[in-house]
């Protein structure tokens, strides 16, 4: 089943159950400075759930563009390592604003998966919050799931809150067992490991309490439903491929990279550069299409770091000149029908990507030489000092994760604690300098110096 058919089926199924089809909101959340990127379908409905905003409908269905890089949800480090994480992905979601609750949410999800998509019920597993007896019972009653396939889990996995106060409640997740051949070992199992065999596909959140400042939970008069299913994950399962990266949503990018490099894709660890690049160019293309620009702070800084990371993996495939920009039209071919913004802006997006690639290449090669020299003098198991990592950052614009990745390959650890201390000192200096009046600013002009890419996001593990 093509991904575009899954999107359609999802929207149609829930529309037929009285849900308003609402378009995806932008990746840059409107009027929400607390959030770097839209990371779930519910983001555009936050105020509706909070009762601050009224809509003409009480049920909605969306296919939402999401980004999980930077901020509270940051999957950047997982990308390419697991079969199931990207930074950019699409989330299919159905929502009830004080309308239906647990019973119907469970019934709809189950009917969609086993009916519309034809999933074998024997392959599905369910988790519920440890004390949510109601959900535990409903899965058996409504969906006929045997009790030995329903696992009770703790707060970390199965309790959701919007913030420290406000709506919250237990969640229930649907997992699919992809088969013995994916097992990570003898202990492999739901709640036992976090491997890709029994994979989470759909999260149903039952918003049923309000949490006040003292932490007390009071039942909401009209509980709500918020759900999210990863499109790439369900597509991977239905298309019978090993990972999200091999679905029709991403694989054409990997194919193009194969053509460009003459290197064949390896679905194992060796294929990591292909997967990282394919993910990152999707993220960059969508962000640029929304008007985010490369910069030294905020969202533009996250995007810059994503591009640099993609380029660094590009080097492993032999790219020494700009190449990412050539993938932009491929993103357009795959995604343009559903998201016209990526094809409409294509020429400009390509130009912006290419410029940024050129900019980074100049410093990258200089920095790589310095890092290689430093690593040469270290034995496997040794530690690269925080000063060295900081110098690479400060002088060559090397984000810590890049240094960490390269050091990893030499089995060298980076003293990140010391790096952090030096970063903190630099931030402090910057803060103090901000207070001073600068009399004679140097005239702005071309510069190849890349230092002082500081700022807010540096303490995030991106
Ligand atoms: P996981 O435990 O696998 O990291 P999650 O619990 O963090 O997933 P949720 O926050 O529950 O994910 O999001 C709802 C759904 O969105 C998930 O069930 C999954 O199908 C999908 N999803 C979440 N993160 C990603 C990602 N980084 N890439 C692709 N799909 C994702
Ligand atoms: Mg996660
Ligand atoms: Mg999870
Ligand atoms: Mg989840």
Automatic annotation (TrEMBL):
Transmembrane segments: none annotated. It is an enzyme of class 6 (ligase). GO terms for biological process: alanyl-tRNA aminoacylation. Its cofactor is Zn(2+). Binds 1 zinc ion per subunit. GO terms for molecular function: alanine-tRNA ligase activity; aminoacyl-tRNA deacylase activity; ATP binding; catalytic activity, acting on a protein; transferase activity; tRNA binding; zinc ion binding. Residues 1-462 form the Alanyl-transfer RNA synthetases family profile domain. GO terms for cellular component: cytosol. It is found in: Cytoplasm. Keywords: Aminoacyl-tRNA synthetase, ATP-binding, Cytoplasm, Ligase, Metal-binding, Nucleotide-binding, Protein biosynthesis, RNA-binding, tRNA-binding, Zinc. Its EC number is 6.1.1.7. Its main location: cytoplasm. The keyword Cell membrane does not apply. It catalyses: tRNA(Ala) + L-alanine + ATP = L-alanyl-tRNA(Ala) + AMP + diphosphate. Consists of three domains; the N-terminal catalytic domain, the editing domain and the C-terminal C-Ala domain. The editing domain removes incorrectly charged amino acids, while the C-Ala domain, along with tRNA(Ala), serves as a bridge to cooperatively bring together the editing and aminoacylation centers thus stimulating deacylation of misacylated tRNAs. Catalyzes the attachment of alanine to tRNA(Ala) in a two-step reaction: alanine is first activated by ATP to form Ala-AMP and then transferred to the acceptor end of tRNA(Ala). Also edits incorrectly charged Ser-tRNA(Ala) and Gly-tRNA(Ala) via its editing domain. Belongs to the class-II aminoacyl-tRNA synthetase family. This is Alanine--tRNA ligase. The gene is alaS. The chain holds residues 1 to 462 of 872 of the full protein.
